[in-house]
Amino acid sequence: MVNIRTVAVIGSGTMGAGIADVAASHGHQVLIYDIAADAISRAVDGIRARLASRVARGKLSADASGQILARLIPVTDIEALAAADLVIEAASERLEVKKALFAKLADVCPAQTLLTSNTSSISITAIAAEIRHPERVAGLHFFNPAPVMKLVEVVSGLATSSEVTDALCELAMNWGKQPVRCQSTPGFIVNRVARPFYSEAWRALEEQVATPETIDAALREGGGFPMGPLELTDMIGQDVNFAVTCSVFNAFWQERRFLPSLVQQELVLAGRLGKKSGKGVYDWHADRPAVQWSASVSDSNPVRVEKISDSVTRIDELLLIETQGETAQSLAVKHNRPVVVVDRIERDVAVIAAAFSNPDSVTRKAIGYLQQQGNRVVQIADYPGLLVWRTVAMIANEALDALQKGVASEKDIDTAMRLGVNYPSGPIAWGERLGWQRLLTLLENLQRHYGEERYRPCSLLRQRALLECSYES
Predict the structure, then answer these.
(1) Where in the sequence numbering do the catalytic residues fall?
(2) pTM score > 0.90 for this model?
């Protein structure tokens, strides 16, 4: 394999500049290519500013900063990229643009030059299909900001050689990154497995289950995710997030579990793109609306509490049931008594829904009980699976589907989701801990409730649930 000394980065936007920063900081001469010289200048100025900040904080010496900057070489003639041992393309996310660019690179660069794309979802197989030596083409997908985020997805197209992916994984580790290997499939690992995190939040918003701030608080404070899904799409940019969802949806032949949201489309059409435009789901020029937590219940009348099982508690005549994907009202009819369902409690936040037929005084008993356990309580509409449980179930199901179809190993899927989007746990490890049978039951109940293929459990989930039951017996 070629010894990688000179790295070319195509594109001087945020990702291109970040990748150039990483490569130069690890001793490589870096050719920054763009058709616009002023764009390269802005990229280098941005890198200079970041380095200056590190020097000011004592994280880098002034001499080292100067050496890094000296390794950055602006290039506006693509023929100059013939000197590169590795090319990393970080340009437009359009297949026809990438195919034309890689065809040119294949003509310009020697056969041993590794040609890679930082694409987040476009097929590496398609990019490499019509060029000479397609075995040297791979995906090298960094996460934003590239100098900070540890994860790099190393993506193999149909023709990519194992020697090329081995070399790219070794290079990523030398750059202080954690590489994960995956096959070229829509969304690769992270942008595929993460889709339910967003789509289930959009669905809850569409069905007017709760306010955006409540949905975000449930996933952030109740589920342990670093950000709520709606605020995260505002940070990413509604246009960017919506485009990735549409790309994955269409690439999977309109598979319903990747269905884009009409509410998100409306935001994009209105130019409400999130933080960068000032408005999205939230108004970024105003204070964030507060979550309407339930008022403290201070009923002096004693209640009789009995633990029926790990997921069911009787409080006088009321059943408090941890959700398994059925509505509180359907459970109230089934048990012929008042029911309150409660979401998965990872921290000190309890999201609940009450049966319509419950007297308010009875529902308040559940609120008071949960508050006595040290939880802040918020009540939402009667919604099957609530917010955290159904989101985690969908993410774990998608992770298992990717595993079963050979996209990546179990270890790499979990690593990718922890490092790429900072999930509190890898989804497969999470599913193992929560129980596969529990997740299977929840998804089957959701599928029955909606009558949609969207919630179809994958076959590997069914297999793991069966194995779990056989071990327990």
Answers:
(1) 120, 141, 153, 191
(2) yes
